Amino acid sequence: MTGESWGLLALFLGVALLCVKPLGLYIANVMEGAPIWPLRAGSVLERLIYRLCGVDPAEEMGWKRYAVALLVFNALGALLLYALQRLQYWLPLNPQHFSAPSPDSAFNTAVSFITNTNWQSYTPETTMSYLTQMAGLAVQNFLSAATGIVVAVVLIRGLARHTAKAIGNFWRDLTRVTLYVLLPIACVLALVLVSQGVIQNFSPYKQVTMLEPVTYQQQKVDAAGNPVTDGAGNPVMQTVTTRTQTLPMGPVASQESIKELGTNGGGFFNANSAHPYENPNAFTNLLEMLAIILIPASLTYTFGRMVGDTRQGWAVLAAMAILFVGLYALCNYSEQAGNPRIAALGVNEAASALQSGGNMEGKEVRFGIAGSTLFATIATTTSTGAVDSMHDSYMPLGGMVPLFDMMLGEVVFGGVGSGLYSMLIFAIIGVFIAGLMIGRTPEYIGKKIEAFEMKMSAIAILVMPLIVLVGTAVAVSVQAGQAGVANPGAHGFSEILYAFTSAGNNNGSAFAGLSADTLFYNTALGLAMWLGRFWPIVAVLAVAGSLAAKKRIPVTEGTMPTHGPTFIVLLIGTVLLVGALTFVPALALGPIIEHLMLWSH
Amino acid sequence: MKAILRPAIVLLLVMTALTGIAYPLLVTGLARVLFPAQAAGSLIVRNGRLVGSRLIGQPFSTPGYFWSRPSATSPQPYNGLDSGGSNLGPLNPALIAAVKARVAALRAADPGNDAPVPVDLVTASGSGLDPDISLAAAYYQAGRVARARGLSLSRVRALIAAHAKGRLLGVLGEPRVNVLELNLALDQTH
User: Fold this and answer.
1) Are A95 and A60 spatial neighbours (Cβ–Cβ below 8 Å)?
2) Chain A partners within 8 Å of B66 (Cβ)
3) Cβ–Cβ of B173/A357 closer than 8 Å?
4) pLDDT tens-digit map of A560-584
5) Which residues of B touch A499 (CB under 8 A)?
6) Would you say residue A25 has pLDDT above 90?
7) Where are the alpha helices (DSSP H) in A97-137?
8) Residue B52 main-chain phi, psi, to 5 deg
9) Which of A360, B45, B61, B107 gets the most CB atoms within 10 Å of its CB?
10) How far is it, in rounded angstroms, from Cα A351 to Cα A328?
11) What is the DSSP letter of A135?
């Protein structure tokens, strides 16, 4: 690893950690209703929303009612997003006159954005109108992020409250998070991104006259616009010369900022954050990475604050940060080492003062190895799934890191809210394992962990591996699944494994060679995303409801502390153990065997 | 159920209006006032003609221009409507064959230059629209460009140095140069 790679990591983590306390405290205040100035400014709007909805914000819900409200709200959101896509041709703000995506593609995209996954089986710049992007996709970037945060807050309340029946009001929680946390930060970030070159307009696409014409081959089309083939069914090619380049336009910055801040990851363009109009330089790259980590990291402080012991939050954050540094180091080392088969062709892959070197296939010069691998690690340890380099072209072990990041269950910072609630479930499993070892009833934050919590926690943890492994097994066994593979051999298996891992964990990044815009993948991955999101959410809400109803037990000499180094090690161990035991066999068939093949010659 | 349906529908519509309409319009309005050139795409206009964007690369293939990185967009390279990478895996024979052909093309255009080829010049970028090449890739091509244009090597190297961008704070960004800006500057050099 180069000095710049460590330096960038230090700068990134340093700035992020400085934000944890102020933002975490602010979120706690927003959720618990402490009177602070932005809330007073927005309170008129907030009260108007409650009146329109016909709800009493002070009326709290039990966990079942909360779960029903959340599911209904998200299901309606999916319907609206599906309708917007299918009707976009007749709606305004469609200067390129795009027609509707296919039903299976629109279904997949609707589920994808509702579940905070943002898997994209379509090419945005030639599929989605400006209206669909901003009033459909970007809206769910806000609302799916808010949904994640409120579930985390509810679990925190479950731990913080005692002998309580209610865990909060879904409408109030969702409204406050969106109004006071997501919208203001997204606004400021969007403007900073524009200042650096991210575009924000409603112009039709621009035609550029290039300095030099380009000559290329393309398939001939007949007068009706159908591709022409010869007698044997092979495409008839023709040589074309053009001097025109089309530049896509659109309201990008406003979507880009919430895409990162809400750990969504759905690009305005196909190349996502590798596209210069989404991510024009290394400074915006840093900003986007910071936006990704900001809320997931800060929520650990919110947690500590709301349960009345900030050391609890710092312990969880420490476990996340330690795992993160290790994963980044492996990814960065592997990519900087480069591709021996390319070096053998007389290519210089060494890092120097004049180039970043390493494996540059699928990477941008302005980000180099450090900016690409740090982005890949933060986008896959959180559930963001944005990419500023193409993971499919990573070295075998370099590409295994994003895959393994997701397999850990998106708990290393994790998605907004979903990272914390999943990590707290791991903490519950961790204290249960420790309790078994020392022969005591396990407890966490003054709550006894009993059979019901353990059952729900197991359900929350195990549904993801089930989706990923069964989905991958089915896809590699059927013709429709194999048909999408782009790379031969073990790498092709990795592409399918990556797709289901990404969908089951609501990440959304891809080994993008896989042709996933097919009926099979749109449907299978759509189901994987829906189950991977809402099954654990209901289980977590159940745990929260059950914990809130319990009595708080006093701390005694026999209580295992959950804020010291021992607990941090226990938590890291639990996460790695569950992730590794479940997925090492699958990884051995993909990236590990590919790595051995590469270096065995 | 009605007690849940009404707030669900109303809140969804209110939030769509707020985050899907009002928010992007507000950002667009502010961006147009504060940063009009950036918001419109950092466009470059020469003699009244739109010749490109500072942020979006263009393909070059004659010896007298600096060549950009390979682009995997289809059907033509640097197609603004098909951003993306090759997605070829590191062991894929198609990747190795493509790199081999690119090395051969660079060597054929610059006989006698036996230096190892900088890696970014023979690998496709992630976006397919990468506007930059590394400084190593620019200096590698300096001899060829100088010969084709009848300029001195030191003149061309000075031009590269004048357009070079480095690392902000020592860690942000990589040593690089914007190919389109460099080539536009070349065209104005006599």
Assistant:
1) no
2) none
3) no
4) 889 999 999 999 999 999 988 899 9
5) none
6) yes
7) 103-114, 130-131
8) 155, -175
9) A360
10) 18
11) I
Three-state secondary-structure class, residue A246: strand
Q: Which residue has the tokens 């806000």?
A: A142
- Phi-psi category of residue A543: left, alpha or beta, with phi > 0 → left and psi -120 to 50 → alpha: alpha
Tokens matching residue A554: 């006093």
Print the SS3 string covering A515-531.
Answer: CCCCHHHHHHHHHHHHH
DSSP B123-146: S--SSS---EEEHHHHHHHHHHHH
Per-residue pLDDT of B87-128, as tens digits, reads 999 999 999 999 999 999 999 999 999 999 999 999 999 999
pTM: 0.95
Verify whether the Cβ–Cβ distance A200 to B55 is below 8 Å. Answer: no
Query: What are the residue boundaries of the structural domains of chain A, listed by start?
Result: 19-203+250-303, 206-247
Query: How large is the greatest C-alpha to C-alpha distance in chain A, in angstroms?
Result: 84
Neighbouring-strand partners of residue A240 = A216
The single-letter code of the amino acid at A413 is F
- pLDDT tens, position by position, B23-77: 999 999 999 999 999 999 999 999 999 999 999 999 999 999 999 999 999 999 9
CA dist., res. A184 & res. A240, Å (int): 48
Residues of B in contact with A512 (CB under 8 A): 84-85, 87
A103: distance to nearest CA of chain B, Å?
22
CA distance B44 to A288: 26
Contacts of A118 (CB under 8 A, 6+ apart): A112, A141, A259, A264, A265, A266, A385, A508
Burial of residue A114, with CB atoms counted within 10 A of its CB: 0-12 exposed, 13-18 middle, 19 or more buried: buried
